[in-house]
Every structure is written in structure tokens, then in C-alpha cells.
Amino acid sequence: MKYGFVIIGGGIQGCATAWQLADAGEDVLLLEGGEIASGASGGFGRRGVRANRRDLRELPLMRSAYRLWPELDERLGIGTGYERTGGLFLIEQEATGTRGGLVAAQAHAATQNRFGIRTEVIGRDRLLELEPAVGPAVRAALHCPLDGTADHTAATKAFAEAARRRGATLREGCHVTSLERSGDRITAVHTAQDEGFEVGTAVLLLNNTGAADLLRRNLGIELPVWRTFPQALRVIPTDGPPMSHLIGHDHRPVSLKPLPDGSVMVSGGWRGRWNAGLQRGEIVEEHVRGNLRTAYEVYPCLEDAELAVADAGTPESCSADGIPVIDRVPGSANAWVGTGWAGHGFAIAPAVAESLASWLRTGTRPDDLTPFSLARFGPAPHGRPAVTDPA
Fold it and tell me: In total, how many domains does the chain have?
């Protein structure tokens, strides 16, 4: 069969883009190798909808995401679990390297405000009004009152169901193995089930960690991305979550989110490792202990919390400069790729989908996607000429 737009990947990016295109009346097929939200967009807990201390190149997208997230439950007709809790980026040191600490706080706040991200620097007295249980070493914080969290599994499935209702075809258990090419166009995709689907207008490789491998094997293109296994923990405090905000930290590798069931999600840059025998990621006990120790250094009342879940099974993609790749595939006139989300693509997903769908339908690259071009890494892989966007 032939479809106007073929999307590979049933995570938050693929499902949100499928919904945007289908809602605009386009003919859409989404192919997911496992189940919807079975990769980095799924799992327990919640994800941050965070602008605070985000890479500046992502802030225009985050400004749009601030607008979109509160509307999604009504527009999709299904709950995403979104909650605007406010976010705090905790500061302990006078200076942290060359980019953090108290000396940098006002500059970060001013810059974020210029991008439309409401931010203020608060001292310890005000911080204790917001977070009474925070540890004694914390001296100040960057406060973004419009930050929050959402249920990543629920949100991804909500986009998927809304796309179906708008007429998109979603196929689970369809692992794409090859791309058929004629000249500079991808004409069809083929699956492990020996099915083939013709591509009418465009194909989108939004299958996160699988996108780079698919391009390498089929088109000989190397993307500057790799795979990691983020660690996430769920702990059960004796007296419930000691925090009410989305919590990040200026120099400690920790992120904390209160969960609706009274537990706390603990993450913040710790990693698992690949288990070749199990063909999945696994936890590293030392990293679990380190993450827990860092959590209770910030919130001392977490020291006696019970560890309920430790998971590092799901891969995530990272790029050479820490922000996503969202661009047309080099040498192709009708293929796009989105990868390298580095664990913070969830928050901006509604905005990325809106802009990407606009680009696909109009042929004009939106300004907020320009920073994510492959051109920022230098000449195109293997010396192939980069496709010039007529816009």
C-alpha cells in the first residue's frame, strides 16, 4: 500500500508528528517495531516538562511547548498526566566550573527571560517557603514557575490514539529493516515481516536509537549520535514525597520528581550498561547507590526511603553536542530524521511535532528547527553534498 507520510517509530516524537499530520488531513502510516511507548518514551514515573537550564537553542521550542502542553488533554481527548508544578534548579556553590553557581544565576535567569521563559533567582528563605525539606547546603535556586511534569507513557499513547481517530494507520510489531531508494527519493520501506509500504510524500525516521543504524545500513550515512542507557529509580519515602516541584541541581547529578502514588522518581544523568546476553540495558549497582546518595544529600529525609524500582533497560540516543538532530537526511529529497534526544526530548515533543509537520507540508523549515540541522557538525557524512533546503 502507498501512504503520503510514513513514520518509523512509535515513541512520543513519532506519535505526536503522526497526530499533527493526520489532524491536518494527511495520509499517515506509523510503523513501530514493538509496542507504542515501549522504548524511551515509556516506562514508570514521569518526565520533566522543563525549560530551566535547558540548552539555549531549545528554548524557542520550549516556549511553544509551554503553550501546547496545557491544551493537550482537551485537544487529544485523552489525559497526558500533565501538571504544571513549577521547577527549581538548586544552587549550593559560589561558582560551579565556568557556567554555574551563584555568580551565574542572575545571568541565566535574565537570558531565559529574554527567550520568554519566566525565571527568577530566589534565596534560601524563599526557597524554604517552596521546599521546606531541602537540605542545608542549598543556598539559592533558579525558579521556573511554568515548568512541570507529565506521564510520558500516557502522553505517548494519547498522541497515538488521537492520531488513529484522525485517520492515521498505526502498526505495532512492524520492525522496519530496509529503505528502498530511487535516485534521491525513498520510495518504499520494508519490514521484518516481509511487508512493503510505498512512500508518497515523505518518510520520517523518528525511531530514536534505531534511526542511526537504519541510515548506516541502508544509505551509508553516519550520524554523530550514539546510544546510552539512562538510569531511573523509584523510591518510597516514609512520609511521602518531600518535594512538590520538579527538582534539578546546579552541580550534583540528580533530578527528582514527586509521583502521584506518593513515591519519588530519582534520575539525573546516571547510566546503566549494555547486557549483550539479555540484549538490553542493565543497572550498575554502584550507580544506583551513587544516585540514591546524591538524592538524600539534597533532601536528607530521603536517606531512609525504600528503593522500589531500579531500571536502565531502555536505550536513549545522544548527539555530539547534546541537542537533537532534526533535519532532512543528507542526499535525500524526501526523508527526514529526528534523533539524539538525550533524555530531554519529551518536553519539547509537541512543539517539535508542530514545527516538523509544518516543514513537511509547506516545504519551509521553521526557524525554531534551524539549530538542529546536521550542518552544524560540518561537511555531510562521507562527503555527500548536504541537501539544500529551498527555504
Answer: 2
